[in-house]
Amino acid sequence: MPVDIVILAAGQGTRMKSELPKVLQPLAGRPMLEHVLERSADLGAEAVHVVYGYGGHQVPKALADWPVEWILQEEQLGTGHAVIQAMPGIADDSLVLVLYGDVPLIREATLTELLEKAGSGSLALLSVTLSDPTGYGRIIRDDRGQPQKIVEQQEANETELTVCEVNTGILACPAAQLRNWLTKLGHDNSQGEFYLTDVIAMAVADQYPVDVLIASGEIEVMGVNDKRQLAELESANRAEKTAGLMRDGVTLLDPARVDVRGKLSCGRDVVIDINAVFEGDVELGDGVNIGPNVIVRNSKLAAGCTVHANTVIEDAEIGESCELGPFARVRPGTVLGASAKLGNFVEVKKSYIGKGSKVNHLSYIGDTEIGERVNVGAGTITCNYDGANKFKTTIEDDVFIGSGVELIAPVTVEKGATIGAGSTISKNAPANELTVARSEQTIVKGWERPRKKAKE
Ligand code: UD1
Ligand code: CA
To answer: Which phi and psi (to 5°) does residue 227 adopt?
Structure first.
């Protein structure tokens, strides 16, 4: 059966005390809603319909790359009203799955199970048992344990208030039935809202099967209403990611001080020190060693690499057995051949550095192609930018560049050439020769250093 996912994301989130709509508040470095969209994509739904409202077009704008149908709910008249907005785009023979934009860590396996129940012809609810159910809709069951209705906190009598099984808000149901009940929803309740939860009693009255799936843990169904809950989910998410890494054999010096904000895949015998942050898709090969305070974003590091403290790597591909840092900055578009070395305070952007080449200290290498076995001396700068255009520098195999050299692009240093320290190179340097381009040293005899006047 095709599945249509409806994500409720119109609420303001007053308790966040923020200009940013609640569903855009970041969890693991990405908007909460994006986590829900990702989960939806994993389920292979026919279509995803996102009901938004508070904050106007900020929400669809922030997530414009996602192939979803954005539906504006101008007034937030309740969860039932929100789902009604999405129904015109959903066919009768589909299954509707309702998710919340502020419940970001819901698991795929749970949703699959819920969809299976609904697919066999039932209204399937996801519930959870809480030690403190205050504020939630209670699941009311009859003597035989059959669900009868959901009663919201405001409407519940004293007995109902003692029920600890609550509605997570997530449900699945064949579209035709859901549509039928939604058209009959009223708003005659203490909040004057259209409650989606009222459809349960309607299903029971129609003798339509109602199934309840009880979630195994609180975290996956936990909604975020304030910054404290946001931080709780952040650390729960972190703990889950690090537990997975350790299960796969990764050594974490302190799992509480590693942040994985995307997908991190590791080979065998990877060691990660404290305060490392991984964002986007990161791959670490066998035996990679990550030092403290290292940030790696959307990059691949082949086997045997060592990354020393305080190094930042972004959109790069690092070959086998490279050594980076401490304090190296590897910017987008950088590719390193095997056994290359970037030392402290070296910045590399959009460059290729060949096998066994070294840039060890205080250098900037941009828009450059470096061959194999090249040695770039301390403080070497590729001058790749004239304020308007970028130019390329080429440094061929076996070149030796002395310290403090400026290479004014476009320029080529040919195979085996040596560049004298302090040179400013603006024309090609020929193969196997020494090129020096610096002014002669002069001695000014008898020159006297200015003196400060003695104070009176
Ligand atoms: C709802 C449920 C309650 C459940 C709880 C779980 C109803 C009537 N109640 O209560 O049974 O225990 O969630 O958290 O469904 N939203 C819209 N448009 C609206 C109203 C809400 O998009 O007009 C969205 C909100 O942004 C939010 C979600 O729906 O993501 C839930 O809304 P909220 O107001 O938090 O529902 P609760 O009253 O907490
Ligand atoms: Ca809520």
So the answer is: -65, -30
Looking at the CA of residue 76, tell me the nearest atom of ligand 1.
Answer: 23
CA of 103 to the centre of ligand 2 (A): 9
Q: Is 68 in the pocket of ligand 1 (CB under 6 A)?
A: no
Ranges of the chain whose pLDDT falls below 70: none
Q: Which amino acid is at 354?
A: G
Taking a C-beta distance cutoff of 8 angstroms, is the pair 419, 378 a contact?
A: no
Q: Is 31 in the pocket of ligand 1 (CB under 6 A)?
A: no
Identify the residue whose C-alpha is closest to ligand 1 atom 32.
Answer: 79
C-alpha distances in Å from residue 382, one per residue of 339, 353, 370, 404, 416 = 22, 13, 12, 11, 18
CA-195 nearest atom, ligand 1: 8
Residue-averaged pLDDT of the chain = 96
The response to whether residue 166 sits with its C-beta less than 6 Å from ligand 1 reads: yes
Tell how far the Cα of 433 is from the centroid of ligand 2, in angstroms.
73
Cα separation, 104 vs 236, whole angstroms: 12
pLDDT of residue 59: 95
- Does residue 73 line the site of ligand 1, with CB under 6 A? yes
Peptide bond just before 67 cis, omega within 30 deg? no
Ligand 2 center to 225 CA (angstroms): 7
CATH number of 3-221: 3.90.550.10
Q: How remote is the C-alpha of 124 from its chain's centroid?
A: 31
For the chain, the C-alpha Rg in angstroms (whole number) is: 31
Sorted by where each begins, the domain ranges of the chain are 3-221, 242-435
Amino acid at 196: L
pTM: 0.87
pLDDT at 25: 95
Residues acting as catalytic residues: 361
Q: Which CATH code is given to the segment(s) 242-435?
A: 2.160.10.10
Say if ligand 1 is within 6 A of residue 139 CB: no
Element (H, E) at 228: helix 227-247
Beta strands in 175-250 (DSSP E): 210-214
Q: Which two tokens stand for residue 393?
A: 């520098």
Both tokens assigned to 225:
């209403």
